[in-house]
Amino acid sequence: METRDETSAGGLVVSGLAECVDANGQVDLSRLYVALIGRLDRRGRLLWSMPKGHVENGEAKEVTAEREVWEETGIFGEVFADLGVIDYWFVSDGVRIHKTVHHHLLRFVDGIMNDEDPEVTEVSWIPVSELIEHLAYADERKLARIAHDLLPDLARKEAAAGKVTPR
Questions:
Q1: Which residue from 27, 31, 84, 124 puts its CA 20 to 30 A from 150's CA?
Q2: What CA–CA distance (Å, rounded) separates 41 from 21?
Q3: Tens of pLDDT along 102-118?
Q4: Residue 131, Cβ neighbours under 10 Å: how many?
């Protein structure tokens, strides 16, 4: 069987980093949001996942993540941290494919959420406090746990630097 390698990138656009930190430095993850996409599976179930897509020839993975998130959500974000890599195999049209997906955290910059991408059924802002249970795939839930651990310190740094989320 023919084998092919494919590389994709994407991640979580985060909105409200500095704003979820109170005056005592406590972080409220229910006030911090990430953009997820929903797609219908073959049985008609809406499955939530992180936006992502193929790395184009010569394109940096961070650039791919920013482009794919924008294409699938209508939101422009800037990569500010690595989240992790998911690696898996599947068969499509008689070809065995080894897929590597690089995930990042992206800081919200601009945009209006939309689901105009034909591959996307729905797009939504989800509180980080509910992220793990929203995601359909176990590998992405593992990355969500990493994000859950990383985001409080990143939020405190944003707040200490005086940054605010554009509105």
A1: 124
A2: 37
A3: 999 999 999 999 878 88
A4: 25
Q: How far apart are CA 100 and CA 84, in angstroms?
A: 11
DSSP character for 27?
B
Task: Give CA angle at 165 (159, 167), nearest 5°.
Answer: 150
In angstroms, rounded to a whole number, what is the distance separating the alpha carbons of residues 59 and 98? 19
Gap between the Cα atoms of 1 and 104, Å rounded: 32
pTM: 0.93
Alpha carbon distance 96, 93 (integer Å):
9
Whole-angstrom distance, CA of residue 102 vs CA of residue 85: 5
Q: What is the DSSP letter of 147?
A: H
Report in angstroms the alpha-carbon separations of 36 from 2, 14, 51, 90. Answer: 33, 10, 6, 23
Distance separating alpha carbons of residues 19 and 21, to the nearest angstrom? 5
Alpha-carbon gap, residue 2 to 65, rounded angstroms: 28
105 vs 11: CA distance, rounded Å: 6
